[in-house]
# Entry
Amino acid sequence: MQAQRRTPGVVTMVAICVVSLFYLGCGLLSGPIPTPIRTVPVSSEKAQDLVSKLGQDLILDAEGNYVLTITEEELTSWVALNMGGTIKDPQIILSEGKIHLYGTITTPVRTTMTAILLMEAEAGQAQTTVESITFGGLPIPETFAETLLRQIDDLVTPRHSQGEVEITEVEIAEGELTLRGRVAS
# Structure
């Protein structure tokens, strides 16, 4: 029986991943931990406010347009109370046109995470992209963040019973994320 041959590139990548996970798990690669510019309180009331906002029909003007504002307290509270098994002590800061995310990832290894995300309206939907993301002080390629980005886009996409919701504008100001758009009936 002939042994399978592995290409050197695959073996090297596996070795790098194993060593990186070992060092992350031991905390040996943890760099300085960026801290949020302010502390966002967590409350079940604010998490429920977000669920209510996104779960009910949007309030439309005569032309079918809407404005939906989400606060950093609502986002931080929802993440803290619904993703506690994955992200511990999250802080989501909305500032300077960016989403700043801080926290501790608990799986597959426990390490600090910081991310700076951008969000814009594209093709009628919220589109989140990564400006930077680090786990334990190590930069993470954007491809590893795709699942997180999809979850964020899905979370902030409003729904309406009378038609398809189109997002035409995203604005991130101090403490607030505002979505503007229309409902096509």
